[in-house]
Design goal:
Shape: elongated
Number of domains: 3
Number of strands: 4
Largest sheet: 2 strands, antiparallel
Strand order of the largest sheet: 1-2
Distance between the termini: 149 Å
Structural class: mainly alpha
Strand content: 5-15%
Radius of gyration: 40 Å
Order of helices and strands: HEEHHHHHHEEHHH
Length: 235
């Protein structure tokens, strides 16, 4: 019994501290040692050798920076993908609403154009027209603006307008339809600058008379009677 009690009284009276490096973090491990004499044991040579060197810490820091860079790239790619999916979902929903709602026909006369301008006073009609025109599209601003304007009115109608009313033409910049066209192009091309859209609108108005003449010449050539003589008529 005395030996057993003496053994139980020999408790751990010292601790040895080892330094470990795990994934660049310095961790402290305490190991209890049994010492009957009360002496504190010295750290082992293995524990000393496991202390991180400056080279190891530098390599670990470089690895962490590289890993963080990769993670940031992945997160940025995910963000762009989510934005694209949201845009596609929104565009699909918009196309479905247009199919179920307003369908515009180009104004073929000044009377139709004035009537369309009056309808734009209705906010709901304006928003429906904006949605319809914004889905017409065009990859480049010039193409997008031209297609949007021709969905609103024909070149024959645009011949009577200039942006600021020059050459005794009607002033387009004061009309609601002008704001409608700009907003439709902007919605279709979010990166478009308003000033650039104005320039493209002026280009469409500038070339409208020439377009009308070409259309008239083409129609005349198509409907002109054939004036040539056949072989039978020469006989």
């Amino acid at each position: 019994m005395a030996d057993s009690a003496s053994w139980r009284n020999e408790r751990f009276s010292a601790e040895e501290t080892d330094l470990l490096v795990r994934n660049g973090d310095v961790c402290v491990r305490r190991v209890g040692l049994c010492c009957a004499s009360g002496e504190v044991p010295q750290p082992s040579s293995q524990a000393v050798s496991s202390s991180p060197s400056s080279t190891q810490l530098s390599n670990t820091a470089d690895f962490q920076r590289m890993l963080l860079t990769k993670v940031n790239m992945v997160l940025e790619n995910q963000k762009q993908i989510f934005q694209m999916l949201a845009s596609l979902n929104s565009r699909g929903a918009g196309e479905q609403r247009v199919q179920e709602g307003l369908q515009l026909e180009p104004c073929a006369s000044q009377e139709d154009f004035r009537e369309f301008e009056d309808k734009l006073q209705d906010k709901q009609f304006f928003q429906q027209a904006l949605l319809f025109l914004s889905l017409i599209g065009g990859r480049k601003m010039g193409e997008n603006t031209r297609r949007t304007m021709l969905a609103v009115a024909t070149n024959q109608v645009w011949c009577g307008y200039s942006l600021f009313g020059k050459k005794k033409k009607a002033k387009l910049c004061d009309l609601r339809v002008y704001k409608l066209i700009k907003r439709a192009v902007k919605a279709s091309l979010p990166g478009a600058v308003e000033k650039d859209i104005e320039v493209q609108i002026m280009e469409v108005l500038k070339h409208a008379p020439q377009k009308v003449r070409r259309e008239a010449d083409a129609a005349q050539r198509t409907t002109a009677p054939h004036t040539g003589y056949s072989d039978d008529s020469d006989r």
